[in-house]
Description:
By secondary structure, this protein is an alpha+beta fold.
Amino acid sequence: xxxxxxxxxxxxxxxxxxxxxxxxxxxxxxxxxxxxxxxxxxxxxxxxxxxxxxxxxxxxxxxxxxxxxxxxxxxxxxxxxxxxxxxxxxxxxxxxxxxxxxxxxxxxxxxxxxxxxxxxxxxxxxxxxxxxxxxxxxxxxxxxxxxxxxxxxxxxxxxxxxxxxxxxxxxxxxxxxxxxxxxxxxxxxxxxxxxxxxxxxxxxxxxxxxxxxxxxxxxxxxxxxxxxxxxxxxxxxxxxxxxxxxxxxxxxxxxxxxxxxxxxxxxxxxxxxxxxxxxxxxxxxxxxxxxxxxxxxxxxxxxxxxxxxxxxxxxxxxxxxxxxxxxxxxxxxxxxxxxxxxxxxxxxxxxxxxxxxxxxxxxxxxxxxxxxxxxxxxxxxxxxxxxxxxxxxxxxxxxxxxxxxxxxxxxxxxxxxxxxxxxxxxxxxxxxxxxxxxxxxxxxxxxxxxxxxxxxxxxxxxxxxxxxxxxxxxxxxxxxxxxxxxxxxxxxxxxxxxxxxxxxxxxxxxxxxxxxxxxxxxxxxxxxxxxxxxxxxxxxxxxxxxxxxxxxxxxxxxxxxxxxxxxxxxxxxxxxxxxxxxxxxxxxxxxxxxxxxxxxxxxxxxxxxxxxxxxxxxxxxxxxxxxxxxxxxxxxxxxxxxxxxxxxxxxxx
Length: 653
């Protein structure tokens, strides 16, 4: 009898965990154990819980839709655990949706066909009339829920049904699409911690009302001067910040489209609040785009260029130049340090070109764009020389901070669908190892991506002049010898009597100096309280900023980007005391200060020193450390951060 009781208890726990992970997607182990104890009213130890899970995988593996690691339990359908954790973390004030034992039954795969949801019933009735079996319908809806939770748009989900259903009319299709949308709006979403988009919209309305009531009591850590100090009563100093709350990027869009805000009206907006920046030293303060129509027009043109796709004719010309470079094997006599420039006739920007292939492993040409691109090349070379470990996180940081256009010659297995489709459309016949041209655009903090039309046009020019320079250097590299020590050969387009021709010029590259927004603490009362109540301790903390190892893609047509990972470590305990993922650290560096203050307030300790190994980390923290009288140590290598960062990245990704 006792054995049957234990078996029933174990099955209850497994069913409940199975259902919870359908609601939440991912959850910490300890939090999951707390929910099991509380909601199932079971006296169960952590060891018993782990044993139930272990035996459950052996006995009911095919019925369980979750897995686990040392830190988390997660639904097997989650595409990117790290991305989902980041999304959930953006809702710090949002608790997990309470889920009773009876609730988990309605969310599992095999209960979908008996759902009480009226929109699901309409979908099931319609699909049944089209000849689909209940099993296929349940599978389709289950897959739609999983895909929707992984960020797939409604239209893409609708396309999945086209393979199974023959829609007879536009009205029939529209009715089905409307029911599917309403069904998904009532579906628990992982990033909303089990709440539906509909429920989140109602909560947003409540928060807006509450915010209005409490607005006078809000006092942010950071303040900044408005651009019109004569119109606003503000006495904030030069580099201070103002924060204006807006709709959260992952909340339902207020336009009523049922999409997330970041994938609808907020597609080109910031992550939930607006930042009013001050000018950097040596720069003019331009003001807003509304006040500066020329800037607004320029930004709009840049955005349009980034979205513009190249024509087949433009791609054909680009690929033909690439095949000449491949067959010419120019890297056999052109070294990586044989750098020369090609000026963009449209913008005046110089692409600094460098061949790779002398070692016989990588065959490529990179065109580093402008002073920032050239500096990214030098920075990456310094990192590679100082540490030959390919797994070093700083090396990866340098790789994803490059700014260049690249052509490399790869094996077919390394080409993606877009590459192969382009080659097929161009009717190119390519065979063999290291023969397939792969074009990529590199931008700092972004994943390498396909070229835009403007990039294709310029890179075609670059390849054409690269061929001319390389052929001229085959017997004699004197063309690369410059009159002055720091000058570089630059190919420049000239026009005379309506005819275009390229000439050689020698120029010293423009110096690139990175600037940083460094924020201080403007809440004087809070600063005095910290200095008064927190005790100073002879201890050292470490602070580190680096790129997260997994890129984030808001939609499939948008270039993926790498958030920045900030770690604050107590060296005496070798533990992380603060952690944050920051989408745009260059404009959100105040979050480092926020985390530093949180660490001090929670521990009631002000460290003697904070060690950093990167310039950006130093610049972002220096003003606050000065105010707190914390010594900021610029060291060559941190002691604990690299290993902790590696362990953290493996746990999450």
